[in-house]
Design goal:
Blueprint (H helix, E strand, L loop, with lengths): L8 H9 L1 H10 L5 H15 L4 H6 L2 H9 L8 H18 L6 H4 L5 H9 L6 H14 L7 H4 L18 H25 L1
Helix pairs in contact: 1-2, 1-3, 2-3, 2-6, 5-6, 8-9
Length: 194
Amino acid sequence: MELHITGDPAADKLLSGDAFALLTGMLLDQQVTMESAFAGPEKIRTRLGSMDPGTIAAADPQAFEELFKERPAVHRFPGSMAARVQALAATVHSEWNGDAAAIWTQGDPDGPEVLRRLKALPGFGEQKAKIFLALLGKQCGLEAAGWREAAGHYGQADAFLSVADIVDPESLAKVRASKQAAKAAAKAAKAGGA
């Protein structure tokens, strides 16, 4: 598996080889660009020296937040996002024995079960869980029965709706265009209902 999300070879290599880094990138993917969110784990790894969930969970919260603020910042909301990453790390460490991939592999779960497990994680609501499930299925070799259906419209082939569909600069441009169109439609609908 070789992901091409951030445009930064080191960040993409970490995402491709570290399930917790990939999960953390998805967690960070809000109110920042996808590239910035998914580059966050490499910044954390470089500054902390590890992406191990146990190490992150055990880090001093104030020091961990400072690591998020260091320029270039890990996220535009360093305080709340540092706390969310630590909460996610603590959950993966305690409930999944530090193995993020176990969330989607342990016990050979089907798509709906993987979705349920993802939604149980701190910071993962319905939409984020569905997008991550689609990313696992489309780019990470997940073969869980029913994953496409469980991921909803994000699971559709050639959808270009989310990070799950980004494999190169061309697909990134398509995803950006679909997100902008969705925002414009939502804005128009809100204006029409006001």
